[in-house]
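Hello again, I could really use a second opinion on something today. For a while now I've been wondering how a particular protein folds. Please have a think about how the structure follows from the sequence. Here's the protein in full, and shout if anything looks odd to you:

***
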Amino acid sequence: MSCQGTGASRLVKVGELADLSGKSIRTLHYYEELGLLRPAKRSEGGFRLYEEAASVATIRAISRLQDLDIPLNRIRGMAEAWRGNSAAQDSAPRLLETFRGELAETRSKIEGLTAIEHELMKSIAFLEACTTCSDRPLREQCTACTREGHHAGDVPEFVSAFLD
């Protein structure tokens, strides 16, 4: 099996790449300054020309890594680790270790967000039951409410934060 690329893609100027990627020209120049994005060549007029498909994929990867709260200097370290050796098997272990660490952190964040999701769902169900209450109790009476959807003393944390 070969790991070689499939050939060159269409070359685009930075403005078109910005349009394709949804990033500003300044951001793309900054990525280039950091060594994250590399023009394939320059035009006769001196304009940077980027391989469209590879550059858009790189920018998308940078954005997704930033979505994980990975700072650009750390992403640059990943790129340097990969590009630091000519053989993939020499570069892969460091990048693999980094990605495994990021996966563990991502799973931890997902676990935390899942707990928040459940608390929000409980709060929504609790408050939806409040909207149908005909008794018009005072807020402090809600902690003892036993109407449908409520259990006395079982007020969701997010709701109880506003009852005091």
The longest strand covers residues 48-51. The two ends are 66 Å apart (CA to CA). Helices lie at 14-21, 25-34, 52-67, 72-83, 88-131, 157-160. Residues 1-6 have pLDDT under 50 and may be disordered.
